[in-house]
Write a sequence for this structure.
């Protein structure tokens, strides 16, 4: 058994254990609907976690995803709004919905390209670059919405994607897309050369470069991939609520980082998996849902998240050290 599989099984065991403890401690927690909601209510963060996980494995950060979520949603609404609105916040560019979505994705990819340019070409640390672009993206969204939101004068079909239910159930299209994304990401990670290159770049970037791997191009693709996911999430959320809100996605970048770390992704790169990230998301969802069920204040929920991350990283480090002793 590889170290990665060992850590993934450990994280999965912790997720199951926490669910059992929560089921015993919190009234009405152990229900089929609760188990379904743990995934469906966190589809956005799990989706963002895929891109963040790939970048962490490659040895890079992406803290811009929350800002990209806000920017892409605001752009999609602004582009789709009719140009004959009664006030500035109801007046847009009048694009067809499909074109508004394409242009909004272009805005998200522009942020991803900016991240790649500074990290790859100018060798600025990724944590600094992506913090900056997160603020730039959210700042542009606030300018377009004048610090508020745009939610009027939209075409009827704008809300279709975010609210479309699948297979005669209450499961919405974004949840299905999240599942597809995770499955495809696992396949890329385990079965393709692209996935292997991501690990090699994170384990030893110098050795990878000397071996003929174009790490600059690879990291650029990863930043564009992460930005595309964040842009899609932002557009789907804007479609679901039929509004472009400049504060949407706040702290999502940190939640995506947290679930990756909970799932065993090494912050230094070269180690981790999308499956581990998924179970990390379940851990965070169980902790948050249980805290809500026990009527704890949001302040205590932040503390519980911090404790969960600290214990997870400490336990994973200890478990690997014990395994190789």
């Amino acid at each position: 058994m590889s170290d990665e599989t060992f850590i993934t099984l450990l994280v999965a065991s912790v997720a199951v254990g926490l669910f059992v403890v929560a089921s015993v401690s919190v009234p009405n927690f152990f229900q089929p609907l609760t188990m379904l909601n743990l995934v469906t209510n966190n589809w956005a963060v799990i989706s963002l976690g895929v891109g963040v996980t790939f970048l962490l494995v490659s040895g890079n950060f992406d803290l811009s995803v929350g800002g990209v979520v806000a920017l892409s949603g605001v752009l999609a609404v602004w582009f789709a709004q009719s140009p004959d609105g009664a006030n500035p916040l109801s007046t847009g560019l009048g694009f067809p919905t499909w074109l508004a979505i394409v242009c909004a994705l272009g805005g998200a990819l522009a942020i991803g390209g900016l991240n790649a340019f500074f990290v790859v070409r100018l060798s600025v640390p990724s944590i600094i670059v992506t913090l900056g672009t997160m603020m730039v993206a959210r700042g542009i969204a606030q300018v377009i919405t004048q610090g508020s939101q745009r939610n009027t004068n939209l075409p009827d079909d704008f809300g279709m994607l975010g609210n479309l239910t699948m297979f005669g159930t209450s499961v919405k299209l974004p949840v299905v897309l999240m599942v597809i994304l995770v499955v495809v990401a696992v396949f890329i990670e385990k079965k393709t050369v692209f996935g292997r290159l991501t690990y090699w770049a994170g384990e030893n970037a110098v050795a990878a470069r000397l071996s003929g791997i174009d790490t600059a191009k690879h990291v650029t693709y990863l930043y564009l991939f992460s930005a595309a996911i964040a842009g899609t999430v932002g557009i789907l959320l804007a479609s679901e609520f039929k509004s472009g809100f400049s504060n949407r996605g706040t702290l999502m970048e940190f939640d995506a980082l947290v679930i990756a770390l909970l799932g065993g992704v090494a912050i230094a790169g070269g180690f981790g998996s999308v499956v581990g990230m998924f179970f990390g998301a379940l851990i965070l969802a169980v902790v948050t849902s249980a805290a809500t069920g026990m009527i704890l204040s949001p302040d205590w929920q932040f503390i519980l998240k911090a404790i969960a991350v600290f214990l997870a990283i400490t336990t994973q480090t200890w478990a690997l050290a014990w395994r190789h002793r």
